[in-house]
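Much of our argument rests on the idea that a fold can be written as discrete symbols. The amino acid sequence and the backbone structure tokens for this protein are reproduced below:

___
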Amino acid sequence: MDNYLDRSIIEMFFFESEQLIEQIDRAVLLAEKAGDYSPELVNEILRAMHTIKGSAATMKYSNIAELAHALEDVLHYLREHKPRHVDNSELTDLVLEGSDLIKVELHKLKNGDRNDGDTTDIIVRVRDFLARLDPDNAVGAGISQTEELAEDPAQATFSSRSKSYFAHLVFDDSSGMENLRAFTVAHHLGEMADDCRYEPSDIAVNESSADVIRSEGFRIWFRSAATDEELHQFFSRASYLRSFELSLIEEADTSTDGEANGNGALRASPDINGPPSGDIAPPARQLEREDQTNIQQSIISVHVSKLDKLMDLVGELVISEAMVTQNPDLRGLSLENFMKSARHLRKITSEIQDMVMSIRMVPLTATFHKMYRIVRDVSKKLGKDVQLRLIGEETEVDKNIIERISDPLMHIIRNAIDHGIEMPEDRIRAGKDKAGTITLEARNVGSDVFIAIRDDGGGLDKARILDKARRNGLLHRPAQEMTDKEIYAMIFLPGFSTKEKVSEFSGRGVGMDVVVSNIEAVGGSVWVESEQGAGSDVYFKIPLTLAIIDGMNIRVGHSRFTIPITAIKESFRPTDKDLIRDPNGYEMIMVRGQCYPIVRLHDRFGTDGAKRDLTAGIMIMVESETSTYCLFADELIGEQQVVVKSLPEYIRAYKKISGLAGCTLLGDGSISLILDVERLR
């Protein structure tokens, strides 16, 4: 590979190729769902495959380019000839298998390995499919129309129909890598044009040519038999193009002294290092000139590592602001102007934080749409008819969280199809529709996102779960004392599976515990609700972001703790008449006719110097997804935005401490532990 292809160019190739593969998968699955490949979907898939082919060829990844080229031939034939009898199922399998292979090759390249995957088998099958579509055409033998045209002895006919053009391209200021983008345009243009010359001419070997393109634009002279509309559409699809001007060049009449070559060529051919020399008339007509202000790029791509760094800096800014406004040296001082300035600083800091957070927020659309593929593949292999329904896919969460929930979603959906959804004949006997339905729903609730995966299958069998738990020695208290939610939660234990026979998709007991660990790693929680015979619902509760939260600081003896504001229902000072003990001796408190358990934080974490008398401290009622209870602390210190830091690795390696979500640095420099109310009891 040429030395000028630095890491940023390769990363851009990966990013764009992965986006296009997702687009292809989405379009193919839509076509399969509709039962037909509409012209719009064929065009969408063809454009994406064409771009992958050109980009891969530019980067010299030949196996990816050849596979994309073969698939492009099939799609081109479908678009141009619109055959009536097409095996859509086989076509879908071929395109998806091809996209999977390209994904594997991209993954190898990202890991620094060689893209040595053998694409021969699938290319042969693709060409065989095309040959069956059009047995009399040479393209069916695996020769692309572009290659066939180049080998045609009647090339003079093509040349006689071609016209000469000049194009001037201006790329967006934020695009970067203008030389690579220009080279990609020229490379793709070569498939529909000949005698192509461009300036700067050294874009393939000189990285500084990007500066020339940035200041002067990219100029191309070429001949093509394509229509004006086709050329206009070609340039319109170029990435990060701010504007372009396409002009037809008037050709000189054939002269008697032999200057012209008799086939309509220009009197003087354009020189590779510059514009055509000789007596060429100015452009006869301007085909199209886009208003630069109309297609000005308004979106730029930023590497996620830069956003991570920006978020870290905002976190440090929040801590620094707290250190200034809560400095112990200011206690007891009346500083009206200082406090006014501090409030203004806090307002600006909050706005910066909100803006950075919004930049990092990504809709769940792409992650949800990937599940269409999982549903299709698993249901097809198991012989089941399953439909996927999406609700709230536009819900946004932090990018880092999105990367963590893709695998859990995949495991739950695969399990729902394998364990939950019955075979078609069983569903019909049970009075259900032949096709099962899995619903994937997301919604915002406060500072959290709820994701529900529902199926209308057979539901969970409590007796079977308890029996398997008893046989595996996992039942540590009488079953009659366990709630349904606690029984269903046992399916997430490592090694637990109710399936007797191991299949390709389940039965080993290694999937569901991965779900819990991945969701807990981002501060979330998982629980299950089910009704036997009616289906199961799996819920994820995950935070919108991992970085900064609104917290209530409390003191317990000599220690400080922080409780997320969203978990607090109320706080109050208890009285003796409200305190009771249940038959097992556990402390409870009566609040408006309801009894709630009490958790003494000084006993839970072994803090020194804490108050023991419940009436001398403060009760903070907190609510988790599964329960509501009261925390006993010495006093409330106050509300503050805190930056969530994970517990040091050496502490986590020494002992697993439940009930703690992390730690934070307070304004006076002391450390406060952040409580996880979901796991505190």
In short: Residues 1-5, 138-160, 252-297 have pLDDT under 50 and may be disordered. The radius of gyration is 33 Å. The longest helix spans residues 7-34. The chain has 20 helices and 23 strands.
